[in-house]
Design a protein that fits this description.
Helix content is about 20%, strand content about 35%. It is α+β, with helices and mostly antiparallel strands. The longest helix is centred in the N-terminal third of the chain and has 26 residues, at about 10-35. The chain is globular and about 90 Å long. The chain starts with 7 loop residues before the first helix and ends with a strand. The structure holds calcium ion. Calcium ion binds next to loops.
C-alpha cells in the first residue's frame, strides 16, 4: 500500500532548490565559457579573465556538452565557410578545443573504454554526366578528430582496405577499426576498434595528435596488414612501413621497412612532412610498391641513391628495396594495371602542376619524372615576389629548382596529364572492366584543396584511351569534402572513399545510362 512520507514535501523543495541553483550556475558558467570572444558583458569579462584558458577548456570538455556542441556547430559553420572560400584560416579556439576533446577520446580508445566508432547514414549524393549516373552513399561519424591538415576540419585523414567481408579503416592518428559489409545497409552501425601495440612501435606522440605527421596508408596482403607512417628519427623524417598478422582483437606490429635516408627538420633546406608520399600497392606475391615523398628536401629526388622522392619496390620476405622511378615530389596515388604491367601514380605539384604519371615496368631502368628540375607548377615564392612588384622568377627557389615546363627537353618523362591550378590530387584507382562496360581505361581520382571551382574537394572520373596516350574525358563529381583515399570492393561492387573534411566513408556506385 502506498504511504506518503511525511518528510517528502521538505526533501522535494530542497532538491528543487538545489536543482535551481545548479541550473543558474550552469547557465552563468555556460555563458562565460561559450561567450562570444568579443563580448562586452561585464560579468562575462570579469569571470572569464579570472579563469585560465586550460581550466575553461577542461570545464567545457567535461561539464558543458552544450558548449561543446555549440563549438562543433561553429566548426561546421567554419567548414562551410571554407567550402565557399570565405575564410581560409582556422578558428584558433576551435582548434584548441578539438585538441582537448581528441586527447580525451584518444585516451579512451587506448584504454578500451571506447571500443567502437559510431557511423550514421547521411543523404546520398547523385550526379549525372553524359553517359553515366553516379550515386554516393555517405556515412558520417562525430568521433574522429585529429585532422592531419587544416582542411580536415571536422574529421581526420584515414585510409581504407578490405579484409574478407570487412572494411578496415586506419586513421591518420592510428585508430584501426573494421566495419562488416553486412552493416552497410543499416542507417547506423559501428566500426569496431582493433587495439594494437602501435604506441610501442611508433614513439612520436605527434603521430597521435592533430599534426602533419601520422599514418599514411594501409595495405592488406593475405593475412597481413601493412601501415606506412611518418617516421621521426631524432628530428629527421622519412616514411616507413610496419606490419602485423591480422587478428581482429589485437594487432602486434613490427617494423617492416625503413629507408636509409631521412630529411632533417632543421637544416639549410625546406622541410614539410606533408610531402611524405606513403602509398602502397601490391605488385606480385613477393613484392609491394611504395611511394616516398621528398619532404621538401630538394637535393633528394634527383639523387639516385636517396629514397626521398622515389617510387620503390620492396620485397615482402626480406624488406629489400629497389628504386623504380625518381624525380617525384609527393605521390599520394598509386595503382598497378597488371594486364599492361603499367604503374600509374599521381603526385602533388607545388602551385599547380599536379600530375598523373605512367611507368611501364617492362625493364629494370629507373625512370625519371623530373621533379624538381621540371614541373608545370610554380614555386610559392613567385606570387609573393610579384605582389612586391618584382619578377616572380627571381625568387631564390628557382635557383635551386628551375621548374622548367617541358620534361622531355630535359630528359624526363612527361606526365600523361597535369592540373594547373592544382586539385590536390590523391589516390587513383582503376575501375574493373565490367564495372563500367568500357573498352577504355576508367579511373577514379581523389582531390583535396579548398576551391570547389578548381576541381578541389571532388572525385574525378577520368577516361584514358585504350592505348594510354591521352585523357578522353573528365567528369568532376563535387563532393565538397577532401578525398583522402579510394579503393574498390569486389564484394560490394562499389568504390570505397574516405572523405576527411568531416570524417565520412563514401560508397560510390556508377551506372551507364
Ligand atoms: Ca613531373
Amino acid at each position: 500500500m502506498f504511504t506518503m512520507d511525511k518528510k517528502f514535501p521538505y526533501i522535494k523543495s530542497k532538491k528543487l532548490l538545489a536543482i535551481c541553483i545548479l541550473f543558474i550556475v550552469y547557465f552563468i558558467a555556460n555563458k562565460i565559457i561559450s561567450a562570444d570572444p568579443d563580448s562586452k558583458n561585464k560579468l562575462v569579462v570579469l569571470l572569464r579573465n579570472n579563469i585560465s584558458p586550460e581550466l575553461r577548456y577542461k570545464i567545457k570538455q567535461n561539464v558543458f556538452p552544450l558548449a561543446r556542441q555549440k563549438a562543433l556547430l561553429e566548426a561546421e559553420r567554419a567548414a562551410n565557410k571554407i567550402y565557399a572560400r570565405e575564410s581560409v584560416g582556422f578558428n584558433k579556439e576551435i582548434t584548441e578545443l578539438r585538441k582537448l576533446i581528441s586527447k580525451d577520446i584518444l585516451k579512451k580508445y587506448r584504454s578500451g573504454e571506447i571500443n567502437k566508432i559510431p557511423f550514421y547514414k547521411e543523404e546520398n549524393m547523385n550526379f549525372n554526366f553524359h553517359n553515366y549516373t553516379y550515386e554516393l552513399e555517405i556515412f558520417d561519424t562525430n568521433l574522429l578528430f585529429n585532422g592531419k591538415h587544416d582542411g580536415a576540419i571536422l574529421g581526420t585523414s584515414a585510409y581504407l582496405d578490405e579484409y574478407l567481408n570487412k572494411i578496415i579503416i586506419a586513421t591518420g592518428d592510428g585508430i584501426i577499426s573494421y566495419i562488416n559489409h553486412s552493416d552497410l545497409d543499416k542507417k547506423e552501425f559501428n566500426s569496431k576498434i582493433i587495439r594494437s601495440n602501435l604506441t610501442e612501435i611508433i614513439l612520436d606522440e605527434e603521430v597521435y595528435e592533430q599534426s602533419s605527421v601520422g599514418i599514411k596508408d594501409i595495405l592488406i596482403i593475405n593475412d597481413d596488414i601493412y601501415l606506412s607512417y611518418s617516421n621521426n628519427v631524432n628530428e629527421c623524417y622519412n616514411t616507413s612501413i610496419i606490419k602485423a598478422k591480422i587478428n581482429l582483437d589485437y594487432l602486434e606490429f613490427k617494423k617492416f621497412f625503413e629507408p636509409t635516408y631521412c630529411a632533417k627538420k632543421y637544416s639549410d633546406y625546406f622541410f614539410n612532412p606533408h610531402s611524405s608520399g606513403g602509398k602502397m600497392t601490391l605488385y606480385d606475391k613477393n613484392n609491394l610498391l611504395f611511394t616516398h615523398g621528398d619532404y621538401y628536401y630538394w637535393p633528394a629526388p634527383q639523387d639516385p641513391k636517396n629514397h626521398l622522392g622515389k617510387i620503390l619496390m620492396i620485397n615482402l620476405n626480406n624488406s629489400e628495396s629497389r628504386i623504380l622511378s625518381m624525380g617525384h615530389r609527393n605521390p599520394q596515388g598509386l595503382f598497378l594495371d597488371k594486364k599492361n604491367n603499367l604503374l600509374i601514380s599521381t603526385e602533388h605539384g607545388p602551385v599547380g602542376g599536379d600530375e598523373i604519371n605512367l611507368n611501364y615496368l617492362d625493364d629494370d631502368s629507373v625512370k625519371n619524372f623530373g621533379w624538381p628540375i621540371s614541373s608545370y607548377g610554380e614555386h610559392h615564392c613567385k606570387k609573393r615576389f610579384e605582389m612586391d612588384g618584382k619578377n616572380g622568377l627571381d625568387c631564390s627557389d628557382y635557383k635551386l629548382a628551375p621548374l622548367n615546363k617541358s620534361h622531355k627537353d630535359f630528359g624526363f618523362i612527361e606526365p600523361l596529364k597535369y592540373w594547373s591550378p592544382s586539385i590536390g590530387v590523391t589516390e587513383i584507382y582503376k575501375a574493373p572492366i565490367d564495372f563500367l562496360e568500357t573498352k577504355n581505361n576508367e579511373f577514379f581520382i581523389g582531390s583535396l584543396g579548398n576551391n570547389i571551382n578548381e576541381g578541389d574537394l571532388s572525385l574525378h572520373h577520368i577516361t584514358i584511351n585504350k592505348s594510354y596516350d591521352k585523357v578522353i574525358s573528365e567528369n568532376t563529381l563535387k563532393i565538397y569534402q577532401r578525398i583522402r583515399d579510394i579503393t574498390y570492393s569486389e564484394n560490394l561492387n562499389k568504390f570505397l572513399v574516405f572523405l576527411e573534411t568531416k570524417g565520412s566513408i563514401g560508397l560510390l556506385s556508377v551506372k551507364k545510362k
